[in-house]
Amino acid sequence: MPNIQKPKAEKRKETINIRALTQQQLLIDKAALIANKSRTDFMLDAACKEAEEVLLDQRLFFANEQQMNAFEDALNQTPTKALEELLASKSPWEK
């Protein structure tokens, strides 16, 4: 799984505001301290990791026999230029 980390030279431009319970903030702060990270870095790392998991979990799907046969037929076709470009492109979290 790709590891999303902010390159040192890149400045953060976007603001994300969230509200939390005091207990949640204390928990996050304690974990961030143990991980030797700022609260922001800790929360961004955790949120990005979860986002990657959600996106990667979209790989399971259910199909009946007819749908599976159509899917296999599509896989066996010669790739189109559009498909080749898609497969060569970066994942959304790598951009």
UniProtKB/TrEMBL annotation:
Record-linked InterPro entries: Ribbon_hlx_hlx, TacA_1-like
Keywords: DNA-binding, Repressor, Toxin-antitoxin system, Transcription, Transcription regulation
The keyword Glycosyltransferase is annotated on this UniProt entry: no
One Pfam family recorded for the sequence: TacA1
Example GO molecular function: DNA binding
Similarity-based family: Belongs to the TacA antitoxin family.
Record-given protein name: DUF1778 domain-containing protein
Organism: Zooshikella ganghwensis
